[in-house]
Amino acid sequence: MIRSALRRKGSQMRATSMRRLIGGAAALTLIGATLLSSGSTVFAGETRDITIDTTGLTPVSAGGVTKTDITITNVSGHTLSNAHFLIGLDQVANLPGDVTVVAVFGGDSGVCPVVTTPVSTYDCAFGNIGAKPSQQVRKLSVAFAVGASGVHDISVEVKVSETGTDVGSNANFKTATVSTTASLGDCDHLATFKVPGDGTLTIPVVGGSCNTTDSQRSGLLVPANAIGNLVSVDDSTPAADCGVLTCLGFAVIATVNGGTTVSPYLKWSIFYSNAILGNVNPNKVAFLHGATLIPAGNKGLCKTATSVDCQEPFVVQSDGVTFYVRTATNGAIKGGL
């Protein structure tokens, strides 16, 4: 009888111990699940992490165009879905009233809408942005027309579609802002970016009093290219130190892409009014580009389609004469006799 009681007691103790072990294991499992869940929540806070890097806006004067290059990088460690590059939409402020988007180009912009007329809002759907090094970066350039002088702040955004609460570090968007101070645009000054494919004449303010009261109108024809051209023109300073020439009118100071060689050439368009020319025969007008003399008349005419440091035939108008001069680079050019 005593042995039977002891056996029953021993069995009960073993059963109790097993229940305690099982209960302890369940508790450990629950704690582990809690830790895993907590760890996943912290990771989820980083799953939408994306960066937007921008270059400074290029110099611009009122009436010109400025450009920034944008790099978008997925640093979340996994694919981000349905990414959109936005301007003037969602979380970012509207563009300033005198600013519009005139071109989106380069890099990965092939999936973006083509800008055919200036717009104040823009939405480019990039789709998914992967986590692998070969998939995680998107690049593009954006050009903005600026109407007035002064400070302009321009904001852009990248937004993705991910599940979960859109708060705190788990927000599904990222913004960036670039600023530029547009200088005053007038008859003698222009700083602008020529968008890809634009090979039109770059000349300070066209129309109004500039066309009727400005005694010299100076511009540049820069060949269009796939990445655009950064151009500035200034003809506000009377020409001086013209070497063997007697100076005429105003010096034209220009910058094209930081001074790089222009292929096949840079063409200067310089209009001298009758008030500047007086009784001067256009065939007698030569030019000094830096230290290079470009002769007048037949001696200075361009001989081939790619000749540089030469003149194309001038055009006589009722109010003056327009001269066309080819050079390989920018700098300063002065007319003289």
Largest sheet: 6 strands, antiparallel
CATH secondary-structure class of the largest domain: Mainly Beta
Strand line-up of the largest beta sheet: 9-11-12-18-14-15
Number of domains: 3
Spans of at least 5 consecutive residues whose pLDDT stays below 50 are 1-9, 13-46
Mean pLDDT: 86
Key descriptive features of the protein:
alpha+beta; Chondroitinase Ac, Chain A, domain 3; Immunoglobulin-like; 337 residues; 15% helix
What's the topology here?
Layout: H1 2-44, E1 50-54, E2 65-74, E3 80-87, E4 99-105, E5 122-129, E6 137-146, E7 150-159, E8 173-182, E9 189-194, H2 210-213, E10 216-221, E11 229-238, E12 247-256, E13 266-273, H3 274-277, E14 286-289, E15 292-294, E16 310-317, E17 320-327, E18 331-336
Antiparallel strand pairs: 1-2, 2-6, 3-5, 3-7, 4-6, 7-8, 9-11, 10-13, 11-12, 12-18, 13-17, 14-15, 14-18, 16-17
What's a concise summary of this model?
With about 325 residues, this protein is α+β, with helices and mostly antiparallel strands. The protein is about 15% helix and about 40% strand.
Describe what this molecule looks like in 3D:
The protein is α+β, with helices and mostly antiparallel strands and 337 residues long. 15% of the residues lie in helices and 41% in strands. The strands form 4 sheets. A 6-stranded antiparallel β-sheet has the order 9-11-12-18-14-15, with no helix packed on it. Strand 14 and strand 15 (292-294) form a beta hairpin. The longest helix is centred in the N-terminal third of the chain and has 43 residues, at 2-44. The chain is elongated.
